[in-house]
Amino acid sequence: MSNQRFPTVKIRELKNDYCKFELRDTDASIANALRRVMIAEVPTVAIDLVEIEVNSSVLNDEFIAHRLGLIPLTSERAMSMRFSRDCDACDGDGQCDYCSVEFHLRAKCIGDQTLDVTSRELISSDATVVPVDSADSGYDNLENRGIIIVKLRRGQELRLRAIARKGIGKDHAKWSPAATVTFMYEPDIYINEDMMEKLSLEKKLEIIESSPTKVFGIDENTGRFIVVDPEAYTYDDEVLKKCEALDMPGLIEIRPKEDTFIFTVESTGAIKASQLVLNAIDILKQKLDVVRLSEDTVEADDQFGELGAHMRGG
Amino acid sequence: MVSNGDLVDQPQWAGVDKEFLAAPVKSAVDKFQLLPEFLKVRGLVKQHLDSFNYFVNTEIKKIVAANNEIRSQVDPKLYLRYKDVRIGEPSRMVDYVTEKLTPQKCRISDITYAAPILVNIEYTTGSGNSLKVQEKRELTIGRMPIMLRSSCCALYGKDEEELASLGECPLDPGGYFVIKGTEKVILIQEQLSKNRIIIDTDKKGCVQASVTSSTAATKSKTVIRMEKEKIYLYLNQFKTKVPIMAVMKAMGMESDQEVVQMVGRDPRYSALLLPSIEECAKANVYTQHQALEYLEKQVKPLPYASTRTEKRASSILRDIFIANVPVHDNNFRAKCIYVAVMLRRMMEAILNKDAMDDKDYVGNKRLELSGQLLSLLFEDLFKTMNDESKKLIDTVLGKPNRSSLFDMSKYIVRDSITVGLERTLSTGNWDVKRFRMHRKGMTQVVARLSYIGTVGHMTKISPQFEKSRKVSGPRALQPSQWGMLCPCDTPEGEACGLVKNLALMTHVTTDDEEGPIISLCYCLGVEDLELLSGEELHMPNSYLIMLNGLILGKHRKPQRFATAMRKLRRAGKIGEFVSIFVNEKQHCVYIASDGGRVCRPLVIADKGVSRIKEHHMKELKDGVRTFDTFLREGLIEYLDVNEENNALIALYEGEATEETTHIEIEPFTILGVCAGLIPYPHHNQSPRNTYQCAMGKQAMGNIAYNQLCRMDTLLYLLVYPQRPLLTTRTIELVGYDKLGAGQNATVAVMSYSGYDIEDAIVMNKSSLDRGFGRCIVMKKMVALSQKYENGASDRIICPPREGYEAERMQILDDDGIAAPGEIIRTHDIYINKQSPTVTRGAPAPNLPDSKYKPSRQTYKGPEGETAVLDRVALCTDRNNNMNIKFMVRHTRRPEVGDKFSSRHGQKGVCGTIIQQEDFPFSERGICPDLIMNPHGFPSRMTVGKMIELLGSKAGVSSGRFHYGSAFGEPSGHADKVEVISETLVKHGFSYNGKDFIYSGITGLPLQAYIFMGPIYYQKLKHMVLDKMHARGSGPRVMLTRQPTEGRSKNGGLRVGEMERDCLIAYGASMLIYERLMISSDPFEVKVCRKCGLLGYHNYKLKADVCSTCKNGDNISTMKLPYACKLLIQSLSDEAHAFSGGL
């Protein structure tokens, strides 16, 4: 019973909407489950119902509604919110605070200049759920205009009421908090030093050049062929092919470490990237909690050991 | 082609000039900048505009001048004369006030965009001896539909801002008409050239020379054919064929020797002519008088035998026989020489089959454009109008006592021209009796499905033959098509190869004055025909000079003559579109200035050195030069297909040799507008490009800047159209980058899910959520509030707010018309209209409510889908009825079964939609929008698509649009794959475009590298929602009681003959029974077992009766299809008793 592993996470880089970490001592199924949950099952809040009062813009109502839906809203509260479909306080029509947030938008162009209606003009009824402000992200955004919803010309007007609800990315991509979630196997690069020493400098440079990404290099001090950045390797096999072309198979060997994953998570801004990972783990746990042994499984009770107790809700 | 035998035993490279190969490549001047400049002055549809402008400014004046007088037959002193004619501004009269028209106004309110035809007239008034000549200016005789963007149009010369204020799209090419609110384009018509000798063979293989003559006065077809060694003339006016020698004699060529001399003294020619001469002698025709008498007998009698028909032979020969050769003072010499030339060319063709003319050769074709067609129509209508006016004037004058002062100008019939032009343009049927012209389908409604479709429609050429002809010749690609007609853009199926499209730089000429050219020719040493004897005509070394099919004379130094003419043309002394073509084989110099020839601009080269130098292009860039300056300074000239044969055209400057006379401007201009959208078309298998040309017209996107202000019957728009990442020069030139019809999708070429077989594509659900392939479909609905002859009219009333049917009228406003912005479902009423029950008879001004019956209109849309009422427009139509137009908008996201296509003829339907987390991803986090099966590649061979993927991928990573113009690699208009690969490597991708990908389902890496990158995908108009259809039970046809047919009538799916045969063969008798009867039209009948005829059930007696046997003893009940019962009864009605074998 000692096949049990204890996956570890090592955070490499952490920003508000970006996170890079290593996941060690586990396998692809766990890593992928985590990835899939981050994309599709971590809940956020997004505009779901739009009631248009006045729309004399060039874009039609559905068009604007679709654009509104895709605006990321800050969703720290989303985990504790209710899905409107199982909200007891209301019929899911967005009238209660447990499951929905109301927004208002009023814009009219009166000047000769084109007026950009942006996500900043969406007025929320709840201070915790507001359109994501890209100014917070740390990127230098001088104009800092928010997300453009529609442009208005003189005399055009847009007035609407929108209701944001909790949802998950599986239902619609607008509820997905993840912009990018991806992982890669950590490459394990082995250089046969004996063979490498026999090579001339030009040949070494040739090998370095053959890789489209900067994986290898020459140590400036020792002049040795070294691995500069193993993670730059994209499993393109170009270096291996080059070695074969040089008639030196086995000069470099690269294998993916099948139990180590390097995750890159970028968030839309709805929740922090770190929170996204934590929420995903939470949701995974909740999913596992649902799995329980049925009541009538008696005879094989002890063969599950501790697991059995857990699954029975112990 | 090198075809000499002494090369055989030499090595292959022996013929190659090594020195030439080793020579340094001449630096090429980038001439591309000429193209946008060319299109700036020319626009995309210059051919239409030029033709119409020529008609409106020149031709119409000629027509009016030729028929300028109406003279009364009753009093010949009374006349009306047209002094001048011009077309006014587009306008219309509303309540005696002139209102200016704009095209947009006409489109919206269903009126014709037309301008008055204004004439200045001079006419006599008074009677007897007190005649006075009066003048009237600017009298309207009718209204001429105006081509958009022509010189008469309100949009002419307007800049972008002014166009916008007129509600017009600046990218719209114009070149069409607005007739009763619909946009109509007159298709370019392909014709065999007029007034030219064409040598070919008839069905039996006899060699013939034919001339289709067309002059202002007459049109005729003359055929001279060699049959059984003898030569005959075929002319409609003769009963039978006529020996050609008799015709020659009738025209005064009495001496056989002179004829032989004229044809040429080659003994072979005389030998061929001998049988004809003998035949003529046998018929005892020696003198002119005898010949004329002989011909007189052959003349077809006129249908209404006029009293005296003598001298007809002579007049036929003068006016109808090769009518294009004029006869002055009964001097037939020119005609004789023309016949001799025809004979000579025939004999050449007999002796040497190569001399035969090719009817499919583009140089022998003319393109008839809207101007020419309209001028024919106008001429006919104008003459008819004059005749009518004359009749009217005569009847008025014929009356014994008139009360008012006679004013001739009042009797001009104004309506016939307006109505005639409008009707012809809207139906497209050219029925001009005067010119024996009956053509159908000349106009079409402008395709507004996509912007490219619209532009492509303007360049479409409709064929001269009917589509049914099963010959391959006219359908094949002609080498002479190079640069003039697009080699790719032709439909598939029956019209394949017949319907063509113009290439990007093609220009179609309009008529040019002949007079100055003729006098110029004589100045340059052309010897007049009159001064030449037959013998001198065909002297070796001397060439005949032909102008538009007419023999002007001969010249002893043709090459020098041609060079001189060309020099004059380049200097601008004669028209830039006049072509000079030296035909060495026929010993002729052909000069052409007629309209309808296709030509294209080329850079002139002197001994292989381009005249355009670097500094010229710099000046162009600085704006000092325009395309016209290039033309005027003789750096560029237009060549037509014939003159191209005298030129040696180098593709690139570097390839030019000593003999090169011209250099192409850009090779990709051989393609048309539609084919120009394809990136790297030169890497594709050719049919794929043809398919894309057809599909590009069905792609959704934006159709015009004013698309939302228009009221199209059907409008497909893409929600987020994009500009292709991989563009071509043509895309930028035609404005496809501004009105795109597609989106850049990241495509992974791999197999996935099994729902991607047979070209189906797998789509990413999240991409669809985010707006990929989302489209808006708008449909127009029209309601008419009519006024009737008894003064009653329809009324639109406030809907009931409760009660029965109120639910269906929820979207109606209080005015009874649906409100814009409302959500509309199928069966909803969108207008609460009521019509009076009585519409005829006595005036009934105020009707009570009971006299109205409801005539509401309901919306029929897909079940379960909701649409939105986008706009409502009210306008008055021509009959002063109120016209209410509704636009219904439906936004759709792609679903399984919707059709998509890349720009390489690779269409496919959406096979399945899959969650993003299940989609494969790369370690950069790139996840494809759609997955395409790799089996699409090997058999299609669309390498261009692969290069597009590479180029787009490099484009997104480097932030620069890449180019893929046709044949563009040498001139830098297409990025080379090597360069693209370098860019990819620089940005950390593999050079071959393949990525290392993880499965989204398992998280494990895929076994293979996946070719992945952006490809421009088009959403095509074919969507499942419009096509899907199923029915359980439903409506039936009244007559047969069988289910209806067709989706629109919610019809059933037919078990046809072949399906039935399958079931019979399988032995599934019960299934057939069920399908053909129980589920179709079961019926119960009473049959008499004795007589076998149908009986009936008598409800009074409650018994079954046989009406033949007069009893009910032997009645049985049976089931049979109602259609069968119907047949039996119909047959028995026809007195064929039908008895069942019971």
Automatic annotation (TrEMBL), chain A:
Q: Which GO terms describe its biological process?
A: transcription by RNA polymerase II
NCBIfam families linked: PRK00783.1 (NF001988)
Output one GO MF annotation.
protein dimerization activity
- The DNA-directed RNA polymerase RpoA/D/Rpb3-type domain covers which part of the protein? 18-294
Protein known as: OLC1v1003328C1
Q: Where does this protein reside within or beyond the cell? A: Nucleus
Organism this protein belongs to: Oldenlandia corymbosa var. corymbosa
Family label: Belongs to the archaeal Rpo3/eukaryotic RPB3 RNA polymerase subunit family.
InterPro entries for the chain: DNA-dir_RNA_pol_30-40kDasu_CS (IPR001514), DNA-dir_RNA_pol_insert (IPR011262), DNA-dir_RNA_pol_RpoA/D/Rpb3 (IPR011263), RBP11-like (IPR036603), RNAP_Rpo3/Rpb3/RPAC1 (IPR022842), RNApol_insert_sf (IPR036643), Rpo3/RPB3_RNA_Pol_subunit (IPR050518)
What are the record's GO terms for cellular component? RNA polymerase II, core complex; RNA polymerase IV complex; RNA polymerase V complex
- Is-annotated flag, keyword Lyase? no
Keywords (alphabetical) are: Acetylation, DNA-directed RNA polymerase, Nucleus, Transcription
Asked whether the keyword Phosphoprotein is assigned, the reply is no
Pfam families per the UniProt record, alphabetical: RNA_pol_A_bac (PF01000), RNA_pol_L (PF01193)
From TrEMBL, chain B:
User: Which residues are in the RNA polymerase beta subunit protrusion domain?
Assistant: 43-405
Question: For this protein, what is the EC number?
Answer: 2.7.7.6
**Coiled coil (residue ranges):** none
Q: Which GO terms describe its cellular component?
A: DNA-directed RNA polymerase complex; nucleus
Residue intervals of the RNA polymerase Rpb2 domain: 191-368, 444-508, 545-605, 627-659, 1051-1131
Q: Where is the DNA-directed RNA polymerase subunit 2 hybrid-binding domain?
A: 674-1049
User: Where, per UniProt, does this protein localize?
Assistant: Nucleus
Record keywords: DNA-directed RNA polymerase, Metal-binding, Nucleotidyltransferase, Nucleus, Transcription, Transferase, Zinc, Zinc-finger
GO terms for biological process, alphabetical: DNA-templated transcription; megagametogenesis
Q: GO: which molecular function terms?
A: DNA binding; DNA-directed RNA polymerase activity; ribonucleoside binding; zinc ion binding
Region Disordered, as annotated, extends over 836-862
What the entry lists under InterPro entries is as follows: DNA-dir_RNA_pol_su2, DNA-dir_RNAP_su2_dom, DNA-dir_RNAP_su2_hyb_sf, RNA_pol_bsu_CS, RNA_pol_bsu_protrusion, RNA_pol_Rpb2_2, RNA_pol_Rpb2_2_sf, RNA_pol_Rpb2_3
Entry function: DNA-dependent RNA polymerase catalyzes the transcription of DNA into RNA using the four ribonucleoside triphosphates as substrates.
Q: How does it assemble?
A: Component of the RNA polymerase III (Pol III) complex consisting of 17 subunits.
The record, for NCBIfam families, names: PRK09606.1
In which family does this protein belong, per the annotation?
Belongs to the RNA polymerase beta chain family.
Q: What name goes with this protein?
A: DNA-directed RNA polymerase subunit beta
Organism (species): Oldenlandia corymbosa var. corymbosa
